[in-house]
Amino acid sequence: MKRIGIIGATGYSGIELIRILLQHPEINIHSLYSSSAEGKSLTDYFPHLQGADLPALKGIQPEEIAQENDLVFLATPAGVSAEITPALIKEGVKVIDLSGDLRLHSPQAYKEWYKKSPAAESVLQQAVYGLPEWNKSKLREASVVANPGCYPTATLLALLPILQTEWIKPDSIIVDAKSGVSGAGRGASLGVHFSELNDSFHAYKVGQHQHTPEIEQEILHMTKKEITIQFTPHLVPMTRGILATSYVSLDKSKDVAHIVESLQELYENAYQHAPFVRVRPFGSYPRTKEVLGTNYCDVALHLDERTGRIVILSVIDNMVKGAAGQAVQNMNLLFGFEETLGLPVHALYP
């Protein structure tokens, strides 16, 4: 049994990690850490965990944490992992960071988009981007994993197959994404107050969202193409789920009829060995409800003949494939377990 520690256990990503790991046959949740709840029981915050065999919450002492665990998840706000991770990896413990601190290769880009001090460059160089469908071989050898953001997960899985081709106009990509409010975390603020959010729907951080450089960076890394996307996130009055709608213009100098015929096959081949990506029939409409509580990303392709655009729909549960589930998928690869081990595959429906 591998000993697992979770830093930030009282947040939404932390509690989702616990839900999943309690069902994992090869894992012992050995230690839980919180900067604000040291010495307390997790059931004081989450009574639904009554009866689960969980340790009391501890304070955050990196050297002690490293000695107690084989792997540590950091389910912390931005800025925390940058400070803690160096001490953890110095002691030889594996780290999976669910915050954005280790995702951007450029310290300057992190400063610009996150408005915080970046992690040490030596740590950033060690961190492997944890999108298993496109980075599996590196993840098997990793000791530090930067777990992808929720929006980038849905967006990259939708776009990367077609971006491997020369079929499109690379400057045409627009991503319109909607997320449930759990993506904002458990902290209270006016923006997620019930009476402000209920019966409403709005865009936010237009042209400024910190996941934009992450998406562009990984497109460059995976395809060798430097592409600028237009990314606009929206907040939907529901708890979980992301729907990303990506618009890509076809290069009309190419054989469009051939492209359309080959498109579905392109995606099915790209994900034939990806257990958590389901390529839906051409022209279908995946819904967030159909992946709720699971580690799946469902992708569907459409052609708008009038505009000459491919429209790609992708849905995930932002707390599972967009956070804790993908982190456990990465953990499985790090430890050499079956990639799907312990992960939920049946949606909560209705």
TrEMBL record:
Gene3D superfamilies: Dihydrodipicolinate Reductase, domain 2, NAD(P)-binding Rossmann-like Domain
InterPro entries: AGPR, AGPR_AS, AGPR_dimerisation_dom, AGPR_type-1, NAD(P)-bd_dom_sf, Semialdehyde_DH_NAD-bd
Reaction(s) catalysed (UniProt annotation): N-acetyl-L-glutamate 5-semialdehyde + phosphate + NADP(+) = N-acetyl-L-glutamyl 5-phosphate + NADPH + H(+)
One GO MF term attached to the UniProt entry: NADP+ binding
GO biological process annotation, one example: L-arginine biosynthetic process
Pathway linked to the protein: Amino-acid biosynthesis; L-arginine biosynthesis; N(2)-acetyl-L-ornithine from L-glutamate: step 3/4
Compartment list: Cytoplasm
E.C. designation(s): 1.2.1.38
Gene Ontology CC: cytoplasm
Keyword entries, A-Z: Amino-acid biosynthesis, Arginine biosynthesis, Cytoplasm, NADP, Oxidoreductase
One Pfam family hit: Semialdhyde_dhC_1
UniProt domain Semialdehyde dehydrogenase NAD-binding: residue ranges: 3-142
Leader sequence segment: none
Positions annotated as active site in the UniProt record: 150
PANTHER family for the chain: N-ACETYL-GAMMA-GLUTAMYL-PHOSPHATE REDUCTASE, CHLOROPLASTIC-RELATED, N-ACETYL-GAMMA-GLUTAMYL-PHOSPHATE REDUCTASE, CHLOROPLASTIC-RELATED-RELATED
Function: Catalyzes the NADPH-dependent reduction of N-acetyl-5-glutamyl phosphate to yield N-acetyl-L-glutamate 5-semialdehyde.
Family classification: Belongs to the NAGSA dehydrogenase family. Type 1 subfamily.
Annotated protein name in UniProt: N-acetyl-gamma-glutamyl-phosphate reductase
Gene designation per UniProt: argC
